Amino acid sequence: MEVVITDHPEQVMADIIAGAVRGGARTLGLATGSSPLPTYRELIRRHNDDGLSFAGVNAVLLDEYVGLPPTHPESYARFIRDNFTNHVDLGDVYSPDGMAPDSSAAADAYDARIAEVGPVDVQILGIGSNGHIGFNEPSSSLTSRTRIKTLTAKTREDNARFFDDDLSQVPMHVITQGLGTISDAKHLALVATGAGKAEAVAAAVEGPLTASCPASILQWHRRATVVVDPAAASKLTAADYYRYVYANKPR
Ligand code: F6R
């Protein structure tokens, strides 16, 4: 696992995605939420100013709220269109069907779809303050596949900011790629910023590999990069070592 501590996580993340796309990546895994927004803005800028093209590249989303139609401003299908995919020349964008009458069947169908359009070349990830990735809350099976999950009270509180701070508007259930599904990606790139993520980042990077911190699954992956700003890195005990390794990385 590579840990990159930088004042500009969006540049490092955009370099990873742009490098993969220029190297022939066919499928990107996209996260929603606030963490990857600066990365998406930078990728849009590179598309407009530097000729970065996503032609021939498809994308899969990590998760979706159950009960929100893709037109709802806070549905992840809408979020990713508004904040990224409508602004670049990406191909098809797939997401779980949060409105399906049978969420479990929709989850199975989505897992099969990812297998069909995958493998995902680079999976962008954020991290919840409780260590979740996708919406795999603590205690998620480390080999889980896409399925319906119940959000923890903490995650619903964290996400209420997107719903006018009205907790009652935050859905209780989601369909999320499982930790096993996420791990099928060739490269996992997690971005985290701000002191509020410091504890979760430290648990994911330096704690035990455990379902209690789903993001610790990155320790088990053959290619994982954790890109953090100094505030999110503030609880990493080996921060100096990660800085040293990155400064001396063979280019
Ligand atoms: C979103 C997702 C979540 C978020 C996490 C962090 O698709 O899968 O795991 O990445 O909840 O959210 P933010 O970035 O808003 O702090």
What does the model show?
- By secondary structure, this protein is an alpha/beta fold.
- It has a single domain (2-247), classed as Rossmann fold, CATH 3.40.50.
- It is built from 8 helices and 10 strands.
- It has helices at residues 9-22, 37-50, 76-83, 103-117, 153-159, 179-183, 198-206, 239-247, and strands at residues 2-5, 27-30, 58-61, 63-65, 93-94, 122-125, 147-150, 173-176, 187-192, 224-228.
- The protein has a 7-stranded parallel beta sheet, sandwiched between helices.
- Helix 1 (9-22) crosses helix 2 (37-50).
- The two termini are 17 Å apart.
- The model has no long low-confidence stretch (mean pLDDT 97).
- It binds fructose -6-phosphate (F6R).
- Fructose -6-phosphate binds at residues 31-35, 62-63, 76, 126-128, 132-135.
Key attributes of the depicted protein:
7-stranded parallel β-sheet, alpha/beta, 32% helix, Rossmann fold, 251 residues, binds fructose -6-phosphate, single chain
Layout of helices and strands:
Layout: E1 2-5, H1 9-22, E2 27-30, H2 37-50, E3 58-61, E4 63-65, H3 76-83, E5 93-94, H4 103-117, E6 122-125, E7 147-150, H5 153-159, E8 173-176, H6 179-183, E9 187-192, H7 198-206, E10 224-228, H8 239-247
Parallel strand pairs: 1-10, 2-3, 2-6, 3-5, 6-9, 9-10
Antiparallel strand pairs: 4-8, 7-8
Bound molecules: fructose -6-phosphate (F6R).
